[in-house]
Amino acid sequence: MQTDDSGLDRFDRAILAELAIEARVSVTELARRIGLSKSPTQTRLRRLEETGFIRGYRAVLDPIRLGLDHVAFVEVRMIDTREATLARFNAAVAVIPEIEQAHLIAGNFDYLLKVRTQDMPSYRQVLAEKVSTLPGVSSTSTFVAMEAVKEDVIADVT
Hints:
The chain is an alpha+beta fold. The protein has helices spanning 10-21, 27-34, 38-50, 83-94, 120-131, and strands at residues 70-78, 99-104, 111-117, 137-144. It is elongated, with a radius of gyration of 20 Å.
């Protein structure tokens, strides 16, 4: 069986693709969908989990139904970009639940944050009390999303 640079073959990729669409599928059904028997599918699944290709399983919640329909993207400029400053910032960002995503950026600013809250007043509070007080922050710029046109997880791993 031929593998790619990551060590995955077509069955491994098929497993990942199916789980990205429906993580709660039974091993028996997963095996049927990818064209293997249950035992080798289960072995492959366990290996994909142990080697970190599958980091976990979770429910995908609807933030709109939960009343969290205000999305802002925040450009963050840092005082400096030394490794210690970035590490302190990264650790502090990780514990703020309103920050859904944080990316270190190569460009005119240092980080791009996706912040989800109930409304503008709650966003302003998160910005003032949490984001602006993060270690090493020099300045921020906010861009409010008007509509989510596409928000998907990776499903095409083939």
